[in-house]
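Listing S7. Sequence submitted for prediction.
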Amino acid sequence: MEAQALITRYYAAFNAGDFAGMTAMVTDDFAHDPNQGTRRVGKALFTEFLAKMDRCYREQVVDLVVMANGDDKRAAAEFVINGQYLVAEDGLPPAHGQAYRLPVGAFFDVRDGKIARVTNYYNLEDWLAQVSK
């Protein structure tokens, strides 16, 4: 299925730190719904988000499983993020290189061979407990 291959390439680009490659795989009106955050619409806002994430965190997707529906318009991914918290964000605990391991679910809309939406879910309380040590 094309959607599964697209999502797999998206996370391979993420793991390689290839943020230009990631944004090349999304539509111009791409919608990004972060866990417990405000929706971002458009490549420019997504690019800003990726730059902030690159500054504050080092993360790798492992144990990736991607599923898609029959018409390749919807997909889901389940994976684990292995990460390191490098720079604190406002309202979050101080950062000093804490390691974390966090299960994540992501849901996608695919249109014309590109990702039109991703919505991410993870347990924020679990992450906070791991980095508050």
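Caption to Listing S7: primary sequence and predicted structure tokens for the chain studied. The longest helix spans residues 2-16. The chain has one domain: 2-131.
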